[in-house]
Amino acid sequence: MSSKNRIPMIAGNWKMNLVSGEAAELAAALRKNLSPDLKHEVLLAPSFTNLHCVHEVVKGSPILLASQDMAWEEKGAFTGAVSPAQIKDAGCTHSILGHSERRHIFMETDEVINKKMKTAIKDGITPILCIGEMLEDRESGKTNDVLATQLDGDFAGITAEEASRVIIAYEPVWAIGTGKTATPDVAEATHVFIRSHMEKMYGKNFADALRILYGGSVKATNVDELMAQPDIDGALVGGESLKADKFTRVIHFQKI
User: Which of 30, 31, 201, 253 has its CA 20 to 30 A from that of 73?
Assistant: First the structure.
């Protein structure tokens, strides 16, 4: 499958920002600004407390909804956790798993992320799996080793059929919220490596169909160049997704 057959996705990760009124207002502006001719997917990932109000705003539109995390258990005595059934009840079809902030601030391991992946797949939720390297990994030439370790651990025990539900987001940790962005060439080369590693795991047809998003200071000013790369199938956007005008431009990226 060529990149032309992979449907692009532009996703906004709102992280720990906005209260319900602000989230609803932003979602309404984005819905209003959405071109009726849009051929790719748009997804929003608000905080847990804002999922219901954003769902009310976007339901009936093409905009998809994701949680920023998800528990690996279905229910029970897990104070502070949010279950798959609860995020589905709030309107989510997707969940972001393994974001670098979950890995490095909340110390989530590949084993934990793997459990969440399996639960999401079992419960019909599409995981958006985030992987990425630290600056010291990039500078010491260990990027591919780090990504391979994450992919091997996160997909452990998951069949090709199950894995076909997953979207991968490559987010170099050194480029998240720093203003630094991997150049289009660097991002493309890393996406090529990820696709080749997944081909070793699951075969060429799987790898050709796999969608890999880029995240890391994606902005209205650089999205066109990034999306021009053949192995970049979309973007996972942080800070820029909180500004209706800027994120509208990212959503409506221009083919160059």
Answer: 201
If one looks up domain 3-251 in CATH, what number appears? 3.20.20.70
Does residue 25 carry a catalytic annotation?
A: no
**123-to-93, 165, 166, 195, 222 alpha-carbon distances in Å:** 10, 11, 13, 26, 36
Selecting among 55, 94, 99, 191, the annotated active-site residue is: 99
**Which tens digit of pLDDT belongs to each residue from 90-123?**
999 999 999 999 999 999 999 999 999 999 999 9
C-alpha span between 179 and 38 (Å, rounded):
28
- How far apart CA 110 and CA 60 sit, in angstroms, is 36
In tens, the pLDDT along 205-255 reads: 999 999 999 998 899 999 999 999 999 999 999 999 999 999 999 999 998
Q: The pTM is what?
A: 0.96
Catalytic, 52? Answer no
Here the tokens at position 132 are 């990425």
Select which of 101, 108, 133, 171 is catalytic.
171
CA torsion through residues 206, 234, 168, 217, sign: positive
The residue type at 13: N
